[in-house]
Design brief:
The longest helix has 18 residues. Helix 1 crosses helix 2. The two termini are about 25 Å apart. It contains 4 helices and 8 strands; from the N terminus they run βαβαβββαβββα. It is about 25% helix and about 30% strand. By secondary structure, the protein is an alpha/beta fold. The protein has a 6-stranded mixed β-sheet with strand order 4-3-2-5-6-7. A two-stranded antiparallel sheet has the order 1-8. Bound molecules: inosinic acid. The site of inosinic acid has 17 residues, from strand 5 and helix 3.
Length: about 190
C-alpha cells in the first residue's frame, strides 16, 4: 500500500488497494510522451483530452512533450449505473477547435467496454482530421476484441473499478495521485 500520508485524509478509509503507484504513472507518461515526440517530429499536434477523467494525464503528458502542440477538450457522458457504461454517449462539451486537416491525438483516461472510444473516434473522423490517433492511459481486458484504435497505451488493469489520477467514483477521488480500488463499503454507502 502506498504511503498513507499522501492520501487526502478524507479518502483514507475508502482505499482498498493501490494498483499503480505515482512513480509508475509518471514513468509511463514520460515514455508515452517520448513516443509521441518521435512520431510527430516536425508536425503540429492537437491533443484532445476527454473530460473529466483525462485532465491529469493531459497535464502531465503535455508538460513532457517537445513537439509543437495545442490542447483542446471534449466532455461526454455515457449513461448507465455509476460503475458501468451503457454505451450511449452524449457530447456535453464539444471542441473549440476546427480539426479539419489537423493531426489529432485523442487522450482517454480509461477504455472499458470501448464504446465511448468507438463513438469519439467515429465522431472525430467525420470532421476530417489529417490524422487521428488515440492515447489511453488505462484499459481493461476485453476478450471480445482487440483494441486496434489505441496507438499509445499506458497500462492494462484487471477488470475492476478504479479511481484516482483523474478517475472518479461519484465525482470523488480524482485527486488521488495513484490508481486504486475502493473498499466495497464505499459503494454500499452510496446506495
Ligand atoms: P467505456 O465506454 O465502457 O469504455 O467507458 C469509458 C468511460 O467510462 C471512461 O472514460 C470513464 O469515464 C468511465 N470508466 C470506465 N471504467 C472506469 C473505472 O474503472 N473507473 C472510473 N471510470 C471508469
Amino acid at each position: 500500500m502506498a504511503e498513507l500520508a499522501s492520501i487526502p485524509t478524507v479518502h483514507r478509509d475508502a482505499i482498498a488497494e493501490v494498483l499503480i503507484e505515482p512513480e509508475r504513472l509518471q514513468t509511463r507518461v514520460t515514455e508515452l510522451a517520448a513516443e509521441v515526440d518521435a512520431d510527430y517530429a516536425g508536425r503540429d499536434v492537437l491533443l484532445v483530452g476527454v473530460l473529466k477523467g483525462a485532465f491529469l494525464v493531459m497535464a502531465d503528458l503535455t508538460r513532457q512533450l517537445q513537439v509543437d502542440s495545442q490542447v483542446d477538450f471534449m466532455a461526454c457522458s455515457s449513461y448507465g449505473s455509476s460503475t458501468s457504461s451503457s454505451g450511449v454517449v452524449r457530447i456535453l462539451k464539444d471542441l473549440d477547435t476546427n480539426i479539419e486537416g489537423r493531426h489529432v491525438l485523442l487522450v482517454e483516461d480509461i477504455v472499458d467496454s470501448g464504446l465511448t472510444l468507438d463513438y469519439l473516434v467515429r465522431n472525430l473522423r467525420a470532421r476530417h482530421p489529417a490524422s487521428l490517433e488515440v492515447l489511453a492511459l488505462l484499459s481493461k481486458p476485453d476478450p471480445a476484441r482487440e483494441r486496434p484504435d489505441i496507438r499509445y497505451h499506458g497500462f492494462e488493469i484487471p477488470d475492476v473499478f478504479v479511481v484516482g489520477y483523474g478517475l472518479d467514483y461519484a465525482e470523488r477521488y480524482r485527486n488521488l495521485p495513484y490508481i486504486a480500488t475502493l473498499r466495497p463499503e464505499v459503494y454500499e454507502h452510496q446506495r
